[in-house]
Write a structure and sequence with these properties.
- The protein folds into two domains: about 10-85, 5'-nuclease (Rossmann fold); about 100-139, no CATH class.
- About 55% of the residues lie in helices and about 10% in strands.
- It has seven helices and five strands.
- It has a three-stranded parallel beta sheet, with no helix packed on it. It has a two-stranded parallel ribbon with strand order 4-5.
- The mean pLDDT is about 90.
């Protein structure tokens, strides 16, 4: 099976795992932070949507950071010139997450992706229906 083209991305890039991003952002495990900082600082790196969502989840549910701090950390990280990420709607996900505290990061992702593809998002979640946008409806 042949894989699809890389959408114009550079040929060589390092993909980051959630733990590497977290060590870089939190500076909480000195040896690992040093390694993460070295890799991120000296290379073009790629972070998947799944990794970003997991980073947000861990920062909120495990580290217990406030949403404003989470959005600042993640937005700043995604803004580094050498950090490549999905340009289609990931930043919108982070903005929705910051401005809708009753929605989870996963809800924000689902609504932003549906909107980006001009899809209707159906759900049983009343909070998501009321805050997700006109394209979010009840089943």
């Amino acid at each position: 099976m042949k894989l699809p083209p890389k959408l114009g991305l550079p040929e060589i890039m390092i993909s980051l795992d959630t733990n590497v991003v977290l060590r870089f952002l939190l500076d909480d495990v000195p040896e690992q932070t040093k390694k993460a900082t070295n890799v991120i600082g000296k290379n073009k790196v790629y972070v998947t949507d799944v990794v970003v969502v997991e980073v947000v989840y861990v920062l909120e549910k495990v580290i217990l950071l406030p949403r404003q701090d989470i959005t600042r950390l993640v937005t700043d990280f995604l803004g580094f010139a050498n950090v490549v990420h999905n340009p289609y709607f990931l930043l919108e996900v982070i903005q929705l997450y910051e401005h809708h505290p009753s929605l989870s990061v996963v809800d924000c992702y689902a609504t932003a992706e549906a909107k980006a593809y001009n899809n209707q998002l159906i759900t049983f979640d009343k909070r998501l229906i009321s805050q997700g946008g006109r394209h979010v409806t009840s089943l």
